[in-house]
Amino acid sequence: SAPAHKVTLKAFAISKYEVTFEEYDFFAQSTNKPLPGDNGWGREDRPVIHVSWNDAVAYTQWLSKTTGKKFRLPTEAEWEYAARAGTTTTYWWGDEESEAKGKANCRRGCSSNFSGLFGSKTAPVGNYTPNAFGLYDMAGNVSEWVQDCYQDNYKNAAANGAAIEEKQCTGRVVRGGSTKDNVQHLSTSARDNIPSGYLNETLGFRIVMELN
Description:
Elements: E1 12-14, H1 21-30, H2 53-67, E2 71-72, H3 76-84, E3 115-116, E4 119-120, E5 143-149, E6 172-175, E7 191-194, E8 203-204, E9 208-210
Parallel strand pairs: 5-8
Antiparallel strand pairs: 1-9, 2-9, 3-4, 5-6, 6-7
C-alpha cells in the first residue's frame, strides 16, 4: 500500500451489503445472462460470486437504467472511506488481528463459523458486526471489485477521489479480502490487482449510488 493521500469526496451512498445472488440473478434473468455458479454454498442472501469486473459494471448499468438513478462501482477512494468508517487503524475494528472474531469471515484468524483451515465458504451478507458506518462485510466474505484501474501507487490519484482510468487497463483494483484469506489480508489498505475479465469464488462487489 502506498503513502496516505488526502482526498475530498462528493457525497455518495454505498450499499450496506455486498450484492447478493438474489439481486444479481434477477438482473441475469432479466437480461438473458448466464447465472453465475455458487460453488454449492447457496444463493439468495449470499454474496454473488463468479462475476467479473465487466459483469459487475453491466449490473450497475442495468440498475441505473431500470431505476432512473445513477449506480456504479465505488471508486477506490470511496471504498476505503466507507471501509475505514472514520478510523485510521489497520482494520476497521482496530489494530488487533485477535479482535476479528464476530466481525469478519476469513480462513485464518477470524474464528469464523463458515471458514477454517479445512474449507472456506461465504456467509450470508450481514451475518457479522457492521463497521461504524453500518456497512457489513467490508472485511472478508468476498473481495470486492472497485472502479479503478490498478496502479502501484497513488501518484496519479485525483484529489476528488475519482477513479483512475486508463485506455489499456490491464487490471482492476480489488479490496476487502475474502473468506479464503487470512486475517492479515483483511486490512483496510490491502489491495489486489485482478484482470477485469477474471472471475472466481472469492470475488464479488457492492455498489454506489450517486447523490448528485
